[in-house]
Design a protein that fits this description.
The complex is a heterodimer. Chain A is mainly alpha-helical. Helices cover 82% and strands 0% of the residues of chain A. Helices cover 33% and strands 26% of the residues of chain B. Classes of the chains: A mainly alpha, B alpha/beta. The structure holds adenosine-5'-diphosphate (ADP) and magnesium ion.
Chain lengths: 262, 253
């Protein structure tokens, strides 16, 4: 009896976990097919996209195959992220912890915070040209800001009683910061990291679409300008898959770094 | 007669909070002694300033008037001989039970294996053996409270300040915890300042009871309780004293 009941329940859960998402994907593919068949000039069908995908390996674009373009984009993002994480988190901690830093650096950030990362593109291109550095710099700007904001907010929100506990148990100012305040703020810091990754992935593509030889963004522009919609689709699907993979890895990383949050 | 020595002296403490419009007197002219090795209970109605008073006694907050003496010298900020069990628990959610209990030892730089030994001893004492690696969110309210008590003991204080440690527990758990606390205290004697708003709890635990008035907090009376522990809560002296304190108390507490 009991067993049967459990089986029934797990059948429903299985449907919710696998059935519905698969249904959703089928719906998207079905819509795509319908649109491609009724407007063949606007939209390539999945088979054409698959053939185009194979051709990115047999006849590489700009001498680099699809993997090469994906790695070019990922490399820029990772390089920018490493700098943004280190500098952004340190600055966020300073702003959240020290009132002087908050007054000075915090104010500057309040001013630049509403500027969307893409708005920096013309300025950065004017100042630094279209080499590798300006692209990494753009991604850095786009990822750095959410990190500083989230970290500072997280540090500022730490309950005073946690700091009192630190004082009672003999912690000095640095120990209280390092062993109580920062770990308490870690979930907020992680929220900043998550935002920075998705923001970085968006910004790098925008930067590459404007000026780049290699990268997924460059593929999009190339396909668009050559009226090669199949190539655009190949790039877009790759972008989506890598974006989903990044989000998934971050979730795993967060569970590992913060085992106390459920 | 033994000479009574004072561990701490609270002298004419007052505390006023100033806000943008007006001010609020939380404590007015509170004085009492804390004797070496005694279990002192501070009894008062809710929101009468007990937590504010304890924070001043522990050095976390500054009084607006009066002095707190520790071993005869005025206190300035926190003192590593005074440890505290917080009313709001304030466990570190990101630390395991063991790491929470070790907090003071970690700050002091005690080597790891020694830290483990000391914290294990107090975890065993409060009945948390087997939960060393759990996180606070995995524990019940009563268990969290025990972590707080073990954490305070592991810091090896001379004076243990406890702010309504059993306030959030149900009656059943509360009685059990009172008994355990007494046992722990008998095995490992320290000066205790224990705050509560519960008369029975005060009479069950206290060597002396400082009764506070409602806001602003003033000392109404100080009652010595000369009964052996553990106490019979239905004995005549116990009940008489209970009635006496009860009739002298502001509001129903
Ligand atoms: N930082 C503060 N600023 C202003 N008022 C405060 C502050 N802390 C406590 N109070 C007030 O002091 C009174 C006593 O609070 P508390 O000591 O927490 O009471 P309790 O006896 O329940 O522990 C309350 O009315 C509270 O609002
Ligand atoms: Mg209180």
């Amino acid at each position: 009896m009991m067993n049967l009941e459990e089986k029934k329940k797990s059948g429903l859960e299985l449907f919710l976990y696998w059935g519905l998402p698969i249904l959703a994907i089928l719906l998207v593919v079905g819509g795509w097919l319908w649109f491609a068949i009724s407007n063949p000039r606007l939209m390539p069908n999945p088979l054409q996209v698959y053939e185009r995908l194979i051709r990115t390996f047999t006849r590489p674009v700009a001498k680099v195959n699809l993997f090469g373009h994906a790695f070019a984009s990922l490399g820029r993002v990772l390089m920018a992220l490493v700098f943004a994480w280190v500098i952004g988190i340190v600055l966020g901690i300073l702003i959240g912890w020290s009132r002087v830093c908050k007054a000075v650096i915090g104010t500057i950030f309040e001013i630049i915070r509403p500027i969307p990362p893409i708005a920096w593109i013309p300025i950065v291109i004017m100042w630094f040209g279209i080499e590798e550095f300006p692209k990494v710099l753009l991604v850095f700007i786009g990822t750095f800001v959410p990190l500083v904001i989230n970290t500072a907010a997280g540090i500022g929100l730490v309950d005073k009683i946690n700091i009192d506990v630190g004082k009672i148990f003999g912690g000095n100012r640095f120990q209280i910061l390092a062993q109580i305040v920062i770990p308490t703020a870690l979930p907020s810091i992680f929220a900043g990291i998550r935002t920075s990754v998705s923001s970085g992935w968006t910004t790098v593509l925008a930067a590459e679409m404007i000026a780049a030889q290699h990268g997924l963004g460059a593929l999009v522009t190339r396909g668009w300008q050559g009226s090669d919609m199949a190539l655009v689709m190949v790039a877009v699907i790759t972008i989506a898959i890598i974006g989903a993979f990044l989000a998934f890895s971050l979730n795993k990383l967060e569970k590992w770094v913060c085992p106390w949050t459920k | 007669m033994d000479k009574v020595s004072n561990k701490m002296e609270i002298r004419q403490i007052s505390k006023t909070f100033f806000a943008s419009k007006g001010y609020f007197v939380a404590i007015e002219d509170v004085s009492f002694d804390v004797r070496d090795g005694e279990f002192l209970v501070i009894l008062g109605p809710g929101h009468c300033g007990k937590t504010v008073l304890l924070n001043i006694v522990a050095g976390l907050d500054k009084q607006t008037g009066g002095r707190v003496l520790y071993d005869g010298t005025p206190m300035d900020g926190v003192n590593n001989q005074i440890s505290m069990v917080f009313q709001k628990l304030a466990l570190m959610s990101f630390k395991t039970v063991m790491q929470n209990v070790e907090l003071g030892l970690t700050f002091r730089g005690t080597p790891k294996n020694e830290r483990r030994k000391i914290s294990q001893k107090y975890l065993d004492l409060v009945g948390l053996t087997g939960f060393e690696k759990s996180y606070p969110y995995q524990l019940s309210g009563g268990m969290k409270q025990r972590v707080g008590i073990a954490r305070a003991y592991a810091n090896d204080p001379k004076v243990l300040v406890m702010d309504e440690p059993f306030g959030q527990l149900d009656a059943q758990t509360r009685y059990a915890m009172q008994e355990e606390l007494l046992k722990t205290w008998e095995k490992d004697k320290r000066t205790v300042i224990f705050v509560t708003n519960n008369i029975e709890e005060a009479l069950y635990l206290g060597d002396r009871i400082v009764l506070l008035s409602e806001c602003p907090a003033k000392v109404k009376a100080i009652y010595p309780v000369d009964l052996p522990k553990p106490r019979d809560m239905t004995g005549k002296i116990f009940l008489d004293l209970r009635a006496e304190i009860s009739s002298n108390t502001d509001l129903a507490i």
